[in-house]
Amino acid sequence: MTTRVLVTGAAGRIGRAVLDLLAARGDEAVALERNDPGDLPTARVVAGEAGDPVAVRAALEGVDAVIHLAAIATPERLPAEQVFGQNTLATFTVLEQAGLAGVRQVCLASSMAADGLPFAGRELHPAYVPVDEAVPVQAEDPYALSKLVDEETARTMARRHGMGIVALRLPYVGGFEERLDDFAAATAADPGHHARGYWAYLETRDAARACVLALGVPGPGAEVVCVCAPETLAKEPTAELLERFHPGVEIRAPLPGRTVPVDLSKAERLLGFSAEYRLQV
Predict the structure, then answer these.
(1) Residue 164 forms beta bridges with which residues?
(2) Contacts for 242-251: CB closer than 8 Å, 24+ residues apart
(3) Contact between 162 and 220 (Cβ < 8 Å)
(4) 15, 33, 66, 88 from 50: Cα distances, Å
(5) Which end of the chain, N or C, is surrounded by fewer C-beta atoms within 10 Å?
(6) CA 146, CA 219: separation in Å to the nearest integer?
(7) What is the pTM of this model?
């Protein structure tokens, strides 16, 4: 049976990879984009904002599941009110309209930045490593706050509509030739460049696969899941990086070699996910 999936933010980096994966699986996709770029491999493109209930309702027609990716991805270029307001309104609108339309499986993009470290205005350190979905948050910026609210919105909508929702906490995502190699080179030159992100990454095709796998998690209920590659993109051993950039952090599990200091057990257990595309550093 062919599944029809609404993908918001479909013209973005992860969105396009999701569309390619859905097509390869024989599933149909509907795209919701602010402007139709004209080259999306979808059954239908709806031009509109993810925060507009009229546009979202139109996009949801005949849809079985939703992958919600549309968001402002950084707090650094737009006013704080816009970053927080636009992100949270879009997530609320998409989940509310999906629930009202009878959709029961949703994946939404959260971020590992939800813990507050990457965009903080001062130096912060995690409470412990490997960080997991329960690590205490220290959010000070509007983007981190928006993602935390998105995760709480997912819990609310799961109760409100009986939906199964998975919020993926994604790290730095990119393709090898598109931007990941350059980012790894910058991190190699200065490991502090990505210390707040735990030197974690995910190749774009793996990010897309995690999104699609998340649609298979049965509901009702909402889950937050950390996903990234199992090794860091830094050359140094993780223990040395932690001692240098997060001194004194509690280490709760062995981190041999370049093991990423992120607990990936929930992704493996709940999604059956492990990254296939890995950097050679």
Answers:
(1) 105, 221
(2) 242/129, 244/191, 245/191, 245/192, 245/195, 246/125, 246/126, 246/129, 246/195, 247/125, 248/125, 249/125, 249/126, 249/127, 249/128, 249/129, 250/127, 250/128, 250/129, 251/128, 251/129
(3) yes
(4) 14, 8, 12, 10
(5) N
(6) 24
(7) 0.96
Record the tokens describing residue 103, joined without a space: 């959709």
The token pair at 133 is 């979905």
Q: How many residues does the chain have?
A: 281
Residue 48, amino acid: G
